[in-house]
Structures are given as C-alpha cells and as structure tokens.
Amino acid sequence: MNCPYCGYPDSKVIDSRDVNDGIRRRRQCLSCDSRFTTYERLQPASLFVIKKDERREEFSQDKLLVGIRKACEKRPLPTGAIDKLVDDIEAELYHLGKSEIPSTIIGDMVMKELKSLDYIAYIRFASVYRDFTDITALKREVDTLLNSEAEISQPTEQLPLLPDEKPLRLAKSHRRRRR
Ligand SMILES: [Zn+2]
C-alpha cells in the first residue's frame, strides 16, 4: 500500500483494531511520516464505479479520501472527521450490495455529508464535482447555504461560514453574523 501523500511503498502499523467485518489499521509512512488508514476485509465482490463516460473503475477508498481531504484543506475540522466521513460513505456503498455504482451517486453522498460538516469544504467539493462553470452558479449555491443557515436558529455542529478573524462585508440582507 503506497503512501497516499508521497507514494512511498512502505509504512508501519501504529494501531490496529477490529471493526464490523474487518480490521482497521492506522499506518504511518516511513518516508514522510503522514498517517493514513487501511482496511483489511473480506470483500464480497469488487465494487466498480461507473464514470460519466461509462468507463468502469474499481472503487478506491484512497481516491475518495484524497478528494475529500483536498476540499477540507485548512478547515478547522476535528481530527478523524474526514476519515469517519470516508468510512461512512464506503460502508454505505457496500451496504447497497451492488457491484457497480454510478460516480454521481458517490458524489451526491459526499456532497450531502460535507454539507452537514463544513460549508466551505462543501462549496469546494461542489465546485469541482458539479463543475461550476460560471460565478452565477456558484453564487446560487452559496445563497442557498446562507439562507439555510439563517433558518437554523441554533446551529450546533456547523462551522461558521466565514472566519471570525477576518470579517468580510456581506450584503446587508446577510449581515447576520455570530460573534
Ligand atoms: Zn509518505
């Protein structure tokens, strides 16, 4: 298993535990010291992703992790939140019991999860995945988020859309910031 960050082929196991139907291993790259998680499990059948151009590609947890991690870069997320998100999505995918799953289904799952985790990560992922081609489409999505945030009186888990240390001037109708 190559390191997902630097590609180095060797890692050491720093933690190992049984989960559901397999073994989860925390690993540390021997080259760059990055940590990542691997699973060992009996796979009922390979899971393939149907790409937009109809090509089939074997499902890769690493690929999913890299994409989500990119979207969450520099966001103040609790440790393990991204791993858990990927675990949940993978479990859900296998739970579907299908041998082929359209990439759009996976993308939608990620969008849904990120939306409840962090708006900035959500917008970043959406801009790649939904391929926002113009600023209007992006603005529409942000407006939807701002409106839904305004509807929630007591947001519990959601991080503020804007960083506190750098207040941005928002349009008057949206100038409702938590202090
Ligand atoms: Zn590495």
Q: Work out the helicity level.
A: 25-40%
Shape: globular
Structural class: alpha+beta
Low-confidence stretches: 165-176
Number of strands: 6
How many helical stretches?
5
Bound molecules: zinc ion
The value of Rg in angstroms is 19 Å
Please tell me about this protein's structure.
This protein is an alpha+beta fold. It is built from 5 helices and 6 strands. The strands form 2 sheets. The protein has a 3-stranded antiparallel sheet with strand order 1-2-3, with no helix packed on it. Strands 5-4-6 form a 3-stranded mixed sheet. β4 and β5 form a beta hairpin. α1 packs across α4 and α3 packs antiparallel against α4.
Secondary-structure map:
Blueprint: E1 11-19, E2 22-29, E3 35-41, E4 48-50, E5 56-58, H1 61-71, H2 81-95, E6 100-102, H3 103-117, H4 119-129, H5 135-151
Parallel strand pairs: 4-6
Antiparallel strand pairs: 1-2, 2-3, 4-5
Helix pairs in contact: 1-2, 1-4, 2-3, 3-4
Bound molecules: zinc ion.
Zinc ion binds near residues 6, 8, 31 and 32.
Question: Which features characterize this protein?
Answer:
179 residues; alpha+beta; 3-stranded antiparallel sheet; 3-stranded mixed sheet; globular; binds zinc ion
